[in-house]
Amino acid sequence: MKAIGKNIIINKIDEEITTDSGLLLSNEDVKDFRYQKGIILMPGSEVSEHITTDKVVYYDSRQACTLVLNGDTVTIIQERDVVVVL
């Protein structure tokens, strides 16, 4: 398996978020947020050197697609959809 061009294979990170008032948002609430968190499994062959394996990123979830590869559920995004690299 290899990502081609500007494509990036990521593993989506499910997280619970607590608001300032102490309200705990569930995964169902968080999935409606436009930008979500993921960990890079494999950057494509033409992706910037700043985006490397095992980096955590925030990406535009509206542009992502999810599929099953080798029995694992992964998400495919493009480099332009990455908004923050942690």
Which strand order do you get reading across the main beta sheet? 6-7-1-4-5-8
- Beta-strand fraction estimate: over 45%
Ranges with pLDDT <50 over ≥5 residues? none
Distance between the termini: 25 Å
What's the average pLDDT?
A: 90
Written description of the protein model:
With 86 residues, the protein is mostly beta strands. Helices cover 5% and strands 47% of the residues. It is built from 1 helix and 8 strands. It has one helix at 27-30, and strands at residues 7-12, 17-18, 24-25, 35-43, 56-60, 65-69, 72-78, 82-85. The strands form 2 sheets. A 6-stranded antiparallel sheet has the order 6-7-1-4-5-8, with no helix packed on it. A two-stranded antiparallel sheet has the order 2-3. A hairpin with a 5-residue loop joins strand 2 (17-18) and strand 3. The chain is globular and about 45 Å long. The two termini are 25 Å apart. The mean pLDDT is 90.
